[in-house]
Design goal:
The protein is α/β, with parallel strands linked by helices. It is built from 22 helices and 38 strands.
């Protein structure tokens, strides 16, 4: 039997840890740490082991404490009796010896096993952010010392099952090979040259050569679009491009690109202002003309022209570039084509955000949902409330949080900005600069202030403010305090916080929001950018909250008999916050959680709100997880008259792991989301995507009985789709790009391109056959055009390179890859393949060890797959 395994070293690399032994010195003690997953239990929970080795010259006595983060719950009573394991709050834990007599001698190690829940299967489940301090009465002043972690190889696949219900296999190279066998490499000339797919594309005879002498002629209203095009062409022609304003009737010279606004027809429909449509014509006789229904349409025509440029143009500037003549008429399917980025859990710099915006614009995404606040961070400067960023924008070692928040997601002990992704914020000038940058790319920025839950950074920041002002000015100290004094309501959020919800009965909460929304609106005004919407959060309010709040008692009404207490209070907050936002002529938005309570009482809740003149928040719907009971939430809300943005966790959560592989980063609570998931989404009938749940069990039609289907009227309320990038595992720009790309390109395809023919097919076999054909075309477009361009576009993108598939048959090794066009290189001497090793072209003779790895055009490699030949008979 052959075996196909991974390199153990890749475990360390994928976790961002050096494979060398890592140590840290703390008051004459030098230690190294390693973590090993022992395995999951069939009845639930898992067992893991932390090994601490004393590398220093002296014994490590029992006056130390080891702080760290763990996204999964650790069971305190499962630790060895000589140690205490304490959950502080959220994902923050501390491990201590119980007595000073407990010590680790020089050269010795101590293994500490504990239990966790619900399960662990990958590097993203490992604890992180370890640091050691001395806490004893005779210790030197406490200086936290960060201790890197080494992750040991994972156990056998059977130990990675999440209980008896889990039938998702740990992916193997052989399984990948079987999955990839349906793909074939297509000739380059058969591929559509533009992603997302245009509505109409017609090749024309001949070619056009763009030279450095080319001019951009534009109507006066299109100066911004002309400057953007000139800057883009300058990158590939390495010359300053002339730009001139011309009237609407001027002819287009052959050596010019003409930009204008006008009425156009796409798929038999006349497009007008607001439709973001364009007509692009490339002709040897008449040069290039881009006609847009509006400036946004012209801009998207510019992006299509950039996509038509040969890939080599992005690698090295040239004096001239030749493109094929073509006529493209195009319009987006959905008005809302979004990408969400969480910068609260892990901060992303201004330059990182701008790069993401540039890539969004290239693929015609037009809404940037910016998740600026959460439990673990507040990232936008509010001048009247400086504590929001001084305290709420920083994380580091603390037990009272008067100066900064506790560490989360492995951010470590040092609170200074730049020390980790746990600390950082955008000044108002930074924010304004990003708004202007987005506007130039026709991207609307939708800021999110996550309330009333997920608000711990704000809560702790305002408590620090209260402490600073009290007792000399109690009135001012209490002005923005977000929790009611004496409220002892017991609760715990999904992320294990016990103090992360604002009190919706306190007037201070609405004074706080008035200040924040007012300063946000002022920043948009100063930027000269319209503020179209503010997202108010509203998700995952934990049970038990506000049960003992005197302030909430004062606002409860007789409606409590119709809507549960917590739900009534959530709606009270949403309605007040929405009214506050609407005063700035801004559309309120929220996650679907509390709006569903309203729909349960009124099947036409959105229309009822409109009739009463009340704000009708846009619903962003995330929870469609198969088997959780809310698979139809988006359609119920749309049918009830709410505008809806689809954010389906099962298909559009780009931060989830791509596959069940212990080396693959990302969570997996809603399943595994490879890039085919957003590609095959059927937005107006998601039940066609109901194949298997997160545990791999088939989703039966019986289990979906009674779920609401989208009505014709409800379909008019589906505004579009949005990919989500939650921040727990985005600890660097490289992590963000790895998670976002390639999947964000598939989101753009589904948001812009018209509905695919296979989406309307009822016969399951025919549906799958045509879907597979279209997927093969799209995967080839990625591998042969889009990814090679991303290697150089905007300085290059760290997109995910899929590990090869491989199988051993007889005395030969066969290999393939999920994205036709990527190179596979291999070695037969046991070394890691590099960009200089042999390119796989056909089956190769089996050796004792064959190692294979996919590469991009820059020579960057993905994870290595190893094929071990079967042992031969010694005779």
């Amino acid at each position: 039997m052959s075996r196909l395994i991974y390199s153990a070293v890749a475990i360390l690399l994928a976790a961002g840890v050096s494979p060398a032994v890592t140590t840290a010195r703390a008051n004459d003690a030098t230690i190294s740490l390693s973590w090993r997953l022992i395995g999951n239990r069939p009845v639930g929970g898992y067992r893991a082991q932390l090994t601490l080795r004393n590398e220093g010259p002296e014994a490590l006595a029992g006056d130390w404490a080891l702080y760290f983060n763990s996204a999964s719950r650790l069971l305190a009573d499962s630790a060895p009796p000589e140690f205490s394991l304490t959950h502080i709050n959220g994902d923050f834990y501390v491990l201590r010896p119980k007595t000073s007599a407990t010590q680790i001698d020089r050269g010795d190690s101590r293994s500490i096993a504990w239990d966790g829940a619900p399960w662990a299967i990958s590097i993203s489940d490992a604890p992180a952010g370890f640091y050691l301090i001395r806490e004893g009465p005779t210790a030197c002043p406490s200086v936290p010392i960060a201790v890197p972690l080494r992750i040991e190889p994972f156990p056998a696949p059977e130990k990675l099952r999440r209980g008896a219900a889990d039938i998702v296999p740990v992916v193997t190279a052989e399984a990948r090979y079987a999955e990839n066998e349906s793909l074939t490499r297509l000739p380059l000339e058969q591929l559509v040259k533009v992603v997302p797919t245009p509505a109409e594309i017609k090749p024309l005879p001949g070619q056009l050569t763009l030279r450095r002498s080319i001019k951009i002629l534009h109507e006066p209203t299109l100066a911004d679009e002309a400057r953007f095009l000139a800057s883009s062409l300058q990158e590939v022609l390495d010359a300053e491009i002339a730009v001139a304003s011309r009237g609407p009737t001027a002819a287009t010279p052959r050596d010019a690109i003409r930009l204008r606004v006008g009425q156009i027809e796409v798929d038999g429909t006349i497009k007008r202002h607001g439709d973001e449509s364009y007509l692009l014509t490339v002709s040897p006789e008449n040069g290039v003309e881009i006609v847009g229904s509006d400036p946004a349409g012209v801009f998207y025509g510019v992006q299509t022209l950039r996509a038509l440029l040969p890939i080599n143009a992005y690698r090295k500037p040239a004096a001239e570039i030749t493109i094929d003549a073509v006529r493209i008429a195009d319009a987006p399917r959905f008005q809302y084509r979004g990408l969400h980025l969480d910068v609260a859990r892990n901060f992303q710099t201004e330059e990182t955000v701008k790069k993401l915006l540039d890539l969004m614009a290239f693929y015609k995404l037009n809404r940037f949902h910016w998740h600026l606040t959460d439990d673990e961070g507040w990232r936008i400067e509010i001048k009247k409330l400086p504590e929001l960023t001084e305290v709420g924008g920083r994380r580091g070692h603390t037990l009272d949080e008067t100066e900064h928040l506790v560490p989360s997601y492995g951010s470590g002990p040092v609170p200074e900005a730049g020390s980790s992704s746990g600390s950082g914020f955008y000044t108002q000038d930074d924010f304004i600069e990003i708004l202007r940058f987005a506007k130039e790319r026709h991207i609307s920025v939708i800021p999110e202030l996550d309330f009333p839950g997920h608000a711990r950074a704000a809560v702790k920041a305002m408590e620090a403010r209260h402490q600073r002002l009290s007792p000399r000015d109690e009135q001012s100290a209490d002005e923005f305090l977000l929790r009611e004094s004496g409220d002892s309501s017991p609760y715990e959020s999904v992320q294990m916080w016990r103090d992360n919800v604002v009190d919706v009965g306190r007037e201070a909460t609405y004074r706080f929001l008035t200040v924040v929304v007012g300063e946000l609106a002022d920043m948009y005004d100063r930027a000269g950018v319209p503020l179209i919407s503010i997202h108010l959060g509203g998700d995952e309010v934990p049970k038990g909250v506000w049960e003992r709040s005197a302030a909430c008692e004062r606002i409860l009404t007789d409606e409590a008999s119709k809507i549960p207490r917590r739900g009534q209070l959530e709606l009270y907050f949403l309605n007040r916050a929405s009214e506050l936002v609407r005063r700035h002529s801004v559309q309120p938005a929220c996650w679907e959680d509390c709006l569903l309570l309203e729909v349960e009482q009124d099947s036409a809740a959105g229309e009822t709100r409109r009739a009463a003149g009340k704000p009708v928040p846009t619903a962003y719907v995330w929870n469609n997880v198969w088997g959780w009971g809310r698979e139809d939430a988006a359609y119920r809300l749309a049918n009830a008259g709410f505008d809806v943005v689809l954010c389906n966790a099962t298909h559009l959560y780009l931060d989830l792991a791509c596959e069940k592989d212990p080396l693959e980063p990302g969570y997996y609570w809603a399943g595994f989301v490879e890039m085919r998931a957003p590609f095959e989404l059927v937005p107006l009938d998601v039940f066609k995507n109901a194949a298997r749940n997160a545990m791999g069990q088939p989703v039966t039609q019986e289990s979906l009985a009674g779920r609401a289907r989208l009505t014709r009227k409800g379909a008019q309320h589906i505004r579009g789709i949005q990919g989500q990038l939650w921040g727990e595992n985005l600890r660097s720009p490289q992590n963000r790009e790895y998670m976002a790309f390639r999947r964000a390109i598939a989101v753009a395809e589904r948001a812009w391109a018209k509905s695919s023919a296979w989406a309307d097919i009822e016969d399951p076999q025919e549906y799958q056959r045509k879907l597979a054909r279209d997927w093969n075309q799209f995967a080839n477009r990625l591998g042969q055009r889009e990814l090679p361009r991303l290697d150089y576009l905007r300085g290059g993108v760290n997109y995910r390179l899929p590990p090869p598939g491989a199988k051993l048959r007889g005395d030969r090794v066969w290999a393939n890859v999920a994205i036709p066009g990527l190179q596979i290189r291999y070695t037969t001497d046991g070394t890691e393949p590099t960009a200089d090793d042999e390119i796989y072209q056909t089956a190769i003779p089996a050796a004792d060890v064959v190692r294979l790895r996919s590469f991009d055009t820059r020579g960057r490699g993905g994870r290595t797959v190893t094929a071990l030949a079967p042992k031969r008979d010694a005779r």
